[in-house]
Amino acid sequence: QRLFAETTLGRITVINTSSHWSGNYANTTGGSMASGQLSREEALACVGCRHACHILLYADTEAQLFEEIPIRHIILMQMRFDGLLGFPGGLVDPSEESLEEGLSRELWEELGFSLSVTLEDHVSSCHNPSSHLITHFYARRMEEKEIREVERAAASTATDHGHEVMGMVRVPIYTLKGGEGGLPSFLSHSFIGNSRSQLEDALVRFGLVTPEELQTALTHAEQRRKQLWGGAA
Ligand SMILES: O=c1[nH]cnc2c1ncn2[C@@H]1O[C@H](COP(=O)(O)OP(=O)(O)O)[C@@H](O)[C@H]1O
């Protein structure tokens, strides 16, 4: 529980209780916020800050891996041009368009799929003082067939495909025998910005994995990183 509390729970603060809120954690709006977290309104009032908006798209599925292991949820991330994993989205200039309009525009370029992002989809906003970048995180639950459409469009009609985006990837949330394969291996890859913590928070926030499953995966991911990098990463 300790590892999870330090690496994940400490960062979870509900900024905007969205329709996706699963109620696993107390709503701390108006209370003490985790460091770096701020409300969407506070974020927009920041002078000299840049804004980046990204979204997690997910769906439930009955599919099974090897006709044996339940896949449970399809969760989309992408392999970026720089070889790092991240969520679809990008920089938005709020003086030109709303955060949600900007994110919808980015999604059209990266996914080739028209998705109108709304305030309801907003999950959290996080300020990085050293870069003056505020990362706004959104999430949308979809039907499995819609997610499949997104994947098809992203690889065929999206203008950014093969340029800024190398391809969509699904996040494996199961753990394979031995404890390393699946989510632990995925979490030991390299992620852009704070997208890894956005993913970890969302997995528990939306009930896609249990806190215990995430804790176990993080422990294995850490061991794996130490094996690969000798503790340097
Ligand atoms: O998935 C993400 N979550 C959080 N921050 C991200 C994610 N992807 C990129 N960023 C950060 O957002 C900023 C804009 O990145 P991005 O490459 O998406 O925008 P752009 O395509 O408009 O240049 C970068 O500083 C990057 O570190």
Automatic annotation (TrEMBL):
Pfam families: Nudt16-like (PF22327). GO terms for cellular component: nucleolus; nucleoplasm. Its EC number is 3.6.1.64. It catalyses: IDP + H2O = IMP + phosphate + H(+); dIDP + H2O = dIMP + phosphate + H(+); a 5'-end (N(7)-methyl 5'-triphosphoguanosine)-ribonucleoside in mRNA + H2O = N(7)-methyl-GDP + a 5'-end phospho-ribonucleoside in mRNA + 2 H(+). Residues 48-232 form the Nudix hydrolase domain. GO terms for molecular function: 5'-(N(7)-methylguanosine 5'-triphospho)-[mRNA] hydrolase activity; IDP phosphatase activity; phosphodiesterase decapping endonuclease activity; snoRNA binding. GO terms for biological process: mRNA catabolic process; nucleotide metabolic process; sno(s)RNA catabolic process. Belongs to the Nudix hydrolase family. NUDT16 subfamily. This is U8 snoRNA-decapping enzyme. It comes from Oncorhynchus mykiss.
